[in-house]
Amino acid sequence: MRFATVYDNKSLYPHLAPKWGFACLVGDDLLFDTGGDGRTLLSNMAQMGIDPAGIGTVVLSHAHGDHTGGLAGLLATGVRPTVYVPCSFPQRFKADVRSLTTLIEVHRPMEIRPGVHTTGEVGRRIVEQALAVETEEGLVVVTGCAHPGIVEMVRRAQS
After folding, report:
1. Which residues of 126-158 are buried (b: 16+ CB within 10 A; e: fewer)?
2. Which of 113, 88, 111, 124 is nearest to 157 (CA)?
3. SS3 75
4. Which residues have a Cβ under 8 Å from the Cβ of 87 and sit 6 or more positions away?
5. Residues of the chain with pLDDT under 50
6. What is the pLDDT of residue 147?
7. Could you report the per-residue pLDDT of 9-55, keeping only the tens digit for each?
8. Fewer CB under 10 Å: which end of the chain, C or N?
9. Helical spans, DSSP H, in 77-117
10. Residues 6+ apart with CB under 8 A from 21
């Protein structure tokens, strides 16, 4: 299973633009979060040889712009991935996404595809979801910021 950081505030690679936010490619076609802006996301994807047309699924961790801001740029390319968001996302955001592609609201843990699960909504003040990915080496948990606390996020992923 491939995990590739596409967008982050620091980069170990000089050809990638660092910017505040986060996005991670999981496997070949699942993007977890989209960073803060489409220009940086798409530029880094191009530098990494990732074709936006190959993105079939987007999972957004929480409703902060540095994790969701690149989605508009991705969708502007004509890509129409299935987008998974916590139910607690703003209604306007969900309506805007639904006008362009399939949106799935997540409340409870669910399987996105074999071996890839969302934790469902975790937390009270800032609600977030994480991914639990089954790999040959064991369970990998991918989080955005882990606002509810990393221990709680991992516990939810394990269950």
Report:
1. ebbbbbbbeeeeeeebbbbbbbbeeebbbebbe
2. 111
3. helix
4. 105, 106, 107, 121
5. none
6. 95
7. 998 889 999 999 999 999 999 999 999 999 999 999 999 999 999 99
8. C
9. 91-98
10. 7, 8, 9, 33, 35, 36, 37, 40, 65, 66, 67, 69, 70
Chain centroid to Cα 119, Å, comes to: 13
This prediction has a pTM of 0.96
Residue with token string 């982050």: 8
> Which of 18, 49, 55, 12 minimizes the C-alpha distance to 36?
18
Give 46's contacts (C-beta < 8 A, 6+ positions apart): none
Distances (CA, A) of 3 to 6, 56, 87: 9, 16, 26
102, two tokens: 């399939």
What one-letter code names the amino acid at 52? Answer: P
* Alpha carbon of residue 97 to chain centroid: 14
Are residues 130 and 142 in contact, defined by beta-carbon separation less than 8 angstroms? yes
Q: What is the pLDDT of residue 159?
A: 86
